[in-house]
Amino acid sequence: MRLIPITLCAAAMALAASCGSHQEYKTDSLGVEVTSEQNREYSYTDKQAGYWYGTTHQKDLQWYSGWNMAKKRVLADYTLSVDGKPLDRSEAVCTVYPDRLVRKWDNAVETFSMTDNLPILHIAVETEGAGTSISLDHSLITDSHMAEDGLFFIPNEAPDNRIMLCSDGKKGFVLTYGTEEECRALQKRFSTDGQKLIKARKERINSLVTEYNPTKSNLPELDRSLDWITITMDELITEQQGNGIYAGLPWFNEYWGRDMFISMPGACLVTGQFDIAKEILKDFAKLQDTDPSSETYGRIPNRANLEGILYNTTDGTPRFVIQAYQLAQYSGDTEFLHELYPAIKISIDASIRNYTDSKGYLTHADADTWMDVKRNGIPGSPRGNRANDIQALWYEQLTAGSHIAALMGDDSSAEEWSGLAQMLAANFESDYCDKDGAFIYDHLNADGSKDTQFRPNQVYCFDLIADDEFKQKVTRRVWEELVYPWGVASLAQWDPQFHPQHENWHYYHKDDAYHNGTIWLWNNGMAMQRMIEYGQVDAAWELFCNMNRQALHEGAVGSLSENADAHPREGHSWVKRSGTFLQAWSNAEHLRVWYQHFLGIRPNLLEGKIVIEPRIPSEITDIQTSVKIGNGTLHYTYKKGKVSVKLEGVDAELEIHEPAGQQDSPLFEGVGFCMPDPLESYPCFATYYETALTY
Question: Is the torsion defined by CA of 472, 478, 480, 481 positive or negative?
Fold first, then answer.
């Protein structure tokens, strides 16, 4: 690794130091101290197109680490020195805060921070030493030139732009990104407004857990984890190209329609960020495929980034319509629906005309669901042409669309779509449900045959089924055969295709395992929801607490990962995380199930009511929180087994149910987590490959 050392005179320019305000912020109490042995990941975004991702004590460069701008890696890392001696990160005491990273040595303190909406990094240094210097890793940059006001570098992946490095006027450094002119303007802006910019960012982040979602309970660990997950979730709400939600960091800094609309309830609705949600929906509606001759006519993009648009999924479009309706329920606003309705109507009418069969089922390609991985063009988990979760989403799309059509005065569409939804539900229970085996077929193949692989998708289908006892039996079986203490597996371990570990290079390619055994944390939300609905609150709570532990004590600070192994590695009692370390839908589903199902807060301002149906775990004795609904706030208190609420600023009827915790049920007697079988029992380990199976 080649480093570029520079030493800048502190008096060269009078730039602002890091924010030294004496004001107290809740976020200052959320600092997570990380040891050198833990060396955890951390991330920050500028809410636009830039983010920094790294590890707290990083010495060996990670391929994904550093400063990223609009899908381009522009700087890998840096090293600080005091009096000519490099500061060894392994010797630092490191604390990660929601707004900054602080490393402390015996002779220096480093504070790393970003600004909102501007490509600026500030690395403040406090030391008694005579001089400080910074060395930039050279793997992603090329020398440019030294100017009077700073040093310029050329990012290899973005050669038309520059990185400008200069002193902050004290003992720290400022980096800006853009053209040379833009870099200089940003440097000048920071020189006059640096403290204000850093403070404004801090106040915005602080408001997420003080104004929008303040939570205080008898469990400090719960409060801290909810605060952190709320904040890291918000990191991913950006404006890279239009408004959107990054799928995950460090490598999915792009907008995936499916991921985004799965994430929206937890990211925007339960957090009261309705205006942001409206802009996301509007911006994605503009990207709809409106070409009637296209094979993806009517679809909302699966993926949209600066390189192009892909429409290769079926589920993103139904979720777009569903979220538009749910946003109206939370906000009470219907005006934005007028702008979205043309896209909503096209999405439904195109599916009816082009993609539905005689029974009303929505058809699709066998890799056009969330289980979409392909290797060498071959689907890793083919799901026929009528996956069960797609039918559930299609039903919800028709139902939500029918309600929206009625609001728009389009009564004929409302009637047609509602009728099709009813036909779909009438057929589904007989075609997809194995009442004797207590499971729902994962999909129907093009030839009409039924797939019997046991996957978590079935818990998304309950709105299509009237038999409540059957749904309870399915819930129990899913919990005991797919839900491990660390999350929901994508395939039952008794299946011959099951892979217990996501990445095990010498035995199989990781894509073979991706949807065939690998844990997907976003499915935790629906699994917990179903258990809560059937009175198994403490079982759901145990999984919820395990996720809180991950956010606070494992992996990327304050966040939940995309994936995990189903089976611990040799010598470990807990599983290895994998995929993206900060995943939007994992974080979002965790928040959604807390607010909507543990607290039981479910607004429907379109009908002028808010349902409060608490399902409080026995470990919790008191909770105080406030939730934004419409133009007002719902103040929520739980104490001594009673819930009291106060509604301010919005006119709605409160439908309050008595709090309920764990409930006995003969159908769930003795229910417990799935536990892994011995590794030698899995067929995927039958063959060892001398050369690792990688991309």
Answer: positive
- Report the b/e string of 482-501 with b at 16+ CB within 10 A: bbbebbbbbbbbebebbbbb
3-state DSSP assignment of residue 464: helix
User: Which residues neighbour 422 within 8 Å (Cβ) at sequence distance 6 or greater?
Assistant: none
pLDDT tens, residue by residue, 48-104: 999 999 999 998 888 889 999 999 999 999 999 999 999 999 999 999 999 999 999
Measure Cα distances from 457 to 160, 404, 462, 489, 497 in Å.
Answer: 46, 27, 10, 11, 17
The CA-based angle 455-555-87, given to 5 degrees, is: 160
Tokens of 321: 């319509």
Q: Can you read off the two tokens belonging to residue 497?
A: 């295709």
Beta bridge partners of 656: 612
Q: Which of 278, 392, 290 is nearest to 346 (CA)?
A: 290
Contacts of 623 (CB under 8 A, 6+ apart): 215, 216, 217, 599, 616, 636, 637, 638, 639
Query: CA torsion, points 688, 691, 694, 695, in degrees to nearest 10?
Result: -140
3-state SS string over 115-182?
Answer: ECCEEEEEEEEEECCCCEEEEEECCCEEEEEEECCEEEEEECCCCCCEEEEEECCCCCEEEEEECHHH
Cα(227)–Cα(645) distance, integer angstroms: 21
Residue 331 structure tokens: 């906000």
pLDDT given for residue 522 in this prediction? 98
Domains and CATH numbers, the chain: 3-211 (2.70.98), 610-663 (2.60.420.10)
Predicted confidence at residue 22, as pLDDT, reads 57
Give one DSSP letter per residue of 404-441, joined into a string: HHHHTT-HHHHHHHHHHHHHHHHHHHHHHEETTTTEE-
Contact 111, 98 (CB under 8 A): no
- Which residues have a Cβ under 8 Å from the Cβ of 26 and sit 6 or more positions away? 206, 209, 210, 227
Answer yes or no: is pLDDT of 518 > 60: yes
Task: Give the SS3 label for residue 573.
Answer: coil
Q: How many Å apart are CA 183 and CA 543, to the nearest integer?
A: 47
**Distances, alpha carbon 565 to alpha carbons 491, 509, 545, in Å:** 12, 14, 18
Q: Which residue has the tokens 């699994």?
A: 527
